[in-house]
Amino acid sequence: MSDTNNNRPVTYAMRWDPNTLRPDQVMTDIDARWRNQRGFHYAVVLGDVEHPEVVLDIDWRKQLLITYFLDEFSRLRLKYQFQKIDDESLFMTTSTLFMYQGSAHAPADSAYLVDQWQYLPTGRGHRELWEDGKGLTEVDFDEADIALCWEPTPTFGAWTSISRMDRTQPLWTPPPPRR
Question: How far apart are CA 135 and CA 150, in angstroms?
């Protein structure tokens, strides 16, 4: 367990199952660190394992980190998908909000609203809004403020920044490209 994550319990697992919303094959932090160093897939569960607050699904071989935020009913509330640009920086390529009716546990495909934003480092993007009873609305855009999409690549055990839900203020600026 690590103490750099707002004093939340930290559990590591081989993977996170987004359908069951449960960790699969819990492992020690030593095993997770080994997997991280070699780029192997693993998951980080922040908070109580039965009702986690945040889950990180990390696969450095695919240059991918997904942050899942769960609500008080253990439903998927928000999902950020990051692409590793280099050893220092990640770029949020997708942000997806899920909204549900009622207060019971429910799978993500039962959401009455799914609002997904996709971004490119160029500022171009695409939005898909699906509302129950209204269908799908799609919009392309050319000039998104991508300053909020950049994130430092986390070092193992330092999950506070990548696990923050509020991304209304840029906390980090990527270094200039190397020449």
Answer: 31
pLDDT band at 144 (very low <50, low <70, confident <90, very high): confident
Q: What value does the CA radius of gyration of the chain take, rounded to a whole number of Å? A: 17
∠ CA 19-69-60, nearest 5°, is: 75
Q: Could you give phi then psi for residue 105, rounded to 5 degrees?
A: -60, 140
CA angle at residue 130 from 125 to 134, to 5 degrees?
A: 130
User: Please, what's the b/e burial string for 100-137 (b: 16 or more CB within 10 A of its CB; e: otherwise)?
Assistant: beeeeebebeebeebbbbbbeeeeebebebeeeeeeee
16-40 tens-digit pLDDT? 887 777 888 999 999 999 999 999 9
The answer to whether 133 touches 115, Cβ cutoff 8 Å, is: no
Q: What pLDDT does residue 154 have?
A: 94
pTM: 0.88
Report residue 140 as tokens: 């392309």
If DSSP states are collapsed to H, E and C, what string results for 97-117?
EEECCCCCCCCHHHCCEEEEE
